[in-house]
Amino acid sequence: MTPVAGCVGRALCCFTGFDANVVYGYYYPVMLDRLPEFIDPLAFADKHSELTGRIKLSSLDRLSSVLAENSGTVAVTLVFAKVGRLATVEGRVSATLVVRCQNCLQTMALLVDSTIKLGIVSSMAAADALPEAYEPLWVGDKKIPLKDIVEDELLLALPAFPKHRERCYENAQSVLSQAASKNELSNLNNPFSILAKLKDTGDQ
Length: 204
Description:
Helices cover 29% and strands 35% of the residues. The chain is an alpha+beta fold. The chain has three domains: 1-28, no CATH class; 33-165, no CATH class; 168-204.
């Protein structure tokens, strides 16, 4: 088969077969290793685009506000496609988030690995008609920030009250014990503290 002039680089590539009057069409995915800041989900779905890369956690303002630390990155893989007439986004986001345990108030690492399954819609009727497996991704006339999709998924994956899997009472007791030991050692090295103890002994 011979490529038709002008089709190179497009999502739909055309070839002519042995019969010059027959044109065969094949879709191939457009893969982007560098994540764009803004995307047009419908255009990406038409081209069957795939995005793979990383986004800094510090660039996700809403997520950063609920984290104990915002260093590190989130790994992103998104596949845009068409399922019949429905434009979809499927993929995965994964990151290690540092949050504060709501039991012992110490920081803890929380591994988040969330799958994405979105249907691209622009009206309430279209959202209501989505298959049950899809969540709506609302779009308008303008491009949308890619990080908004990623940030929404991470926020939804965060537990409302993050806690250590193991009992953290012992961990909290260990922290308190260490603090008490440091305080006692500090008092022993303080001459005024020693004099105060001798005075208390003499008064008895």
